[in-house]
Amino acid sequence: MASQPAVFSQAPRNLTRQISVGGVKIGGGAPVIVQSMLDMPTTHVSRCVKTIEQLAAQGCELIRVAVPNAKALPAFEQICEQSPLPVIADIHFDHRLAIEAAQRGAAKLRINPGNIGSLEQVDAIIDECGQRGIPMRIGVNAGSLDKAFAERADLTLSEKLVGSAVSFVEHFRSRGFEDVVLSAKAHDVSTTIETYRKLAQRLPEVPLHLGVTESGTLMQGTIKSAIAIGALLLDGIGDTLRVSLTAPLHEEVRVAWGILAATGLRRRRPELISCPTCGRCQVDLQRMANEVDQRLQTVEKPLAVAVMGCVVNGPGEAREADVGVACGKGKGAIFSKGEVLYTVGEDAIVEALFKEIEEL
Ligand code: SF4
User: Fold this and answer.
1) Which of 7, 20, 348, 2 is nearest to 207 (CA)?
2) Which of residues 267, 296, 324 is at a domain's end?
3) Which of these, 139, 164, 214, 332, could form a disulfide with 327 (CB 3.0-4.6 Å)?
4) What is the 62 CA–ligand 1 centroid distance (Å)?
5) Residue 316 lies in domain
6) What is the pLDDT of residues 207-217, one digit of tens each?
């Protein structure tokens, strides 16, 4: 199992019921958990396991795997056995796949009860997971809404998502199943925020899985996810998150951690503070900041590093950071833990910063 990255700070959060997914705690005041989903055929076991190992090293804490048909089940079982992270089975349409995935080692199931077929089939999944102590995510999605709500012209999309999600949670409860995480995703930022805020009001005890579905490629998806997930996290809403991007998987994890760091909830990597530069700057700050950013990608310490262009805001930010530089004409004053250490020429600034970072 990958070690849990350090908790940086924790804003006041909605107190949800805590569930355990293969030992990883979600809700009830636990750190907000980062998850992702494999983007390759489940039948490629060694490739899947290698990718999970890489994602775990980057800070992914739970991994979801599609189980699209019965052929994928034996491979899914092997992935569960070899994965360094608890594995979530993503199931649509066929309740028998869900039941078998639970029997073959899934740490959690993700289903959309609206597309499983009948309530009796959903109940068969609930009973199997209930007996085995396997939690489930009820994943309601704007693109695959339960028919009873999809056809209601009197409801907004967010009302449909909330109505559908609440009715499923109530049904699960009526069968004595409480180990539920809930998601209700849309591709639109304001619908997502509105929906989750309503869910947090209606079901304050249910842990929420945050995400913007089909958010797009790296740039657009990052912006939409950062706004929607970030706003909700700052409201104290959300217990786990997945950033969905049409991009390499490591980007999802990188963006997820960026959102957690920017909202002040968790940090596992350094934060770079750099000024935009202006007419006062007398060094090549853009080149310097890019080089520092690149080299920080391999640093695991949760430090703040400031790269600042001049004396206007430079000394203040550099002093506040763990390590920093405030530049002047062709040179920079190096700071560590609030103290000015020495001044070096422009070409030696990056090396000096990393020398100080290593010392901490
Ligand atoms: Fe301009 Fe200095 Fe502010 Fe950077 S720190 S933006 S160089 S005033």
Assistant:
1) 20
2) 267
3) 332
4) 41
5) 271-359
6) 999 999 888 89
